[in-house]
Design goal:
It is built from 11 helices and 14 strands. The two termini are 38 Å apart. The chain is an alpha/beta fold. It has an 8-stranded parallel β-sheet with strand order 13-12-11-10-9-8-7-14. Strands 2-3-1-4 form a 4-stranded antiparallel β-sheet. The longest helix is centred in the last third of the chain and has 17 residues, at 316-332. The protein folds into 2 domains: 2-63, Phospho-2-dehydro-3-deoxyheptonate aldolase, domain 1 (Alpha-Beta Plaits, 2-Layer Sandwich); 83-332, Alpha-Beta Barrel (TIM Barrel), CATH 3.20.20. Bound molecules: phosphoenolpyruvate and manganese (II) ion (MN). Phosphoenolpyruvate is lined by residues 102, 128, 132, 184-186, 207, 237, 269, 272. Phosphoenolpyruvate binds at residues 102, 128, 132, 184-186, 207, 237, 269, 272.
Length: 337
Amino acid sequence: MLILLKPGSSEPAVAAVSSRLRMMGLAVHRTDHDGRVRLAAIGDGTPVDLDALKTWYGVESVQRIPVPFKLVSRSFHPADSVISVGRCAIGSDQLALMAGPCSVEGEEQAFQIAEAVAAAGATVMRGGAFKPRTSPYSFQGLGEEGLKILRRAADAFGLAVVSEVMDTQQVALVARYADILQLGARNMQNFALLHEVGHTEKPVLLKRGLAATIEEWLMSAEHILSQGNSRVILCERGIRTFETYTRNTLDLNAIPVVKELSHLPVIVDPSHGTGIRDKVAPMARAAVAAGADGLIIEVHHDPDHALSDGAQSLYPDQYRELVGQIRTIANVIGRRV
Ligand code: PEP
Ligand code: MN
């Protein structure tokens, strides 16, 4: 439930209400909005007498949060969340441009791509060191060596780093090198992993599962927030449908839907969303027009020889041209690159 405290409530008054709620066995989360303290008190579903709570000192109103995802909802936190990473304020009027190879393959590859995407205007470099591959015989990533290379390449060109963590035991390792922890589509409902990243201070890029509804996706974000980490960036990356001409079906509906339901930033991955190089730019442009807070795009200087996802990787020149177009669209909708 959502408890709104009276304007100007003192910190001791806030603490008193919070501790009474905790004594009832409820978890209490706080946000401040419009000069008012808002408390989300979350329990196990045991009915609580809302009318009694309304009489407590300092309490202005009490209401149920009408959705299953509580901390993620706009009811709890009405303003857009902005997550600062490096030079980037994700969820602000500035679009977050993340780009880089699907997999980190080596020093020369990573540096070449980092230089190109930084020159084009990206502020975050992507690159997988632990790769979730359909086949056990495909390239599985360079592991820690890949993270080291990615960090060095990104640092050389002033970029932040996002990289996937596939397992609870890898969280500390990936957190040592990356600025943003990516949870892949296949792990969206790996609840142990959601909790583990929820215990870190790092922003989490939470990709939508291959067959996840928007509500399931937001519930996965709720798992992370419930553990104390509210710095979650949602990423729509396409869902599995009956369509076979594209790798996935990029659900751009999800952008305005999520924007209404949640305060969390939402970015779009048109690379995995389409799986086809020449479909990436049109869907990237559409995503920004639809209100996405940023884009994560695979770029490779030699995609024919990429160890993963070459067919959907843009050439550096294509990426630069796309960023120019994104800049134009951003201007029209009151945003910027
Ligand atoms: C990736 O970003 O390279 C990746 C594997 O993405 P997803 O989890 O969306 O398939
Ligand atoms: Mn990929």
